[in-house]
Amino acid sequence: MERQIYSNLYERLLLSNDKASVLAVARNETVPTDPRQIIKDPMALEFLGLRRESAYYEKDLEQAIITYLQDFLLELGNGFSFVARQKRLHLDGDEFFADLVFYNRLLQCFVVIEIKTHKLTHQDLGQLQMYVNYFDRVEKLPHENPTIGILLCADKNDAVVKFSLPENQKQIFASQYQLYLPTEKMLLDEMQKEIESFEQKVEEKRAVYLAQNKS
């Protein structure tokens, strides 16, 4: 509980556009109805014991997650259960492998996680979209909800994510992983960014109001 308070839950509340909804889900007061209520960005993976200054292959990070699967499930949040590792997908003679597959009983859907130890690219998003489409069309049962895809990456450009995916889509998400817990300074810096962003929005609205009511 202490770890969640000082790391992911706090950061997630800072980054969320619907802080009240996110907090209610975290407290188990409500059942999530939208993937954005449970998907964390960033994800803190300090429990893997990997040194942040070292370089890792994707298979190394995947193996570490499997080794510490219970901790990873706790990091993912409520309702997740493990389904498969390196899930083989057959597409007309070609084979592809989804890194990690989970199921969320609260959202009633598959969750496919693809690991990238580099900065996210639009090709990575296309790959994950294909896996999500496969699960929706082959694995998903009629009563289940659409599959969610999470691209777990070392770094990302939010603009690339935004323009690589359709508007208002709710199935593909990019989460940056951290191999360490944030320091108090990092949390304070994030809070300061939120305050500055809020003040800027207030000033912009004030300028619009004054312009509209200018005599």
Automatic annotation (TrEMBL):
GO terms for molecular function: nucleic acid binding. InterPro entries: PD-DEXK-like_domain, tRNA_endonuc-like_dom_sf, YhcG_C. This is Uncharacterized conserved protein. Keywords: Coiled coil. Residues 37-185 form the YhcG PDDEXK nuclease domain. The lineage of its organism: Bacteria, Pseudomonadati, Pseudomonadota, Gammaproteobacteria, Pasteurellales. It comes from the Bacteria. It holds the Pfam family YhcG_C. Residues 181-208 form a coiled coil.
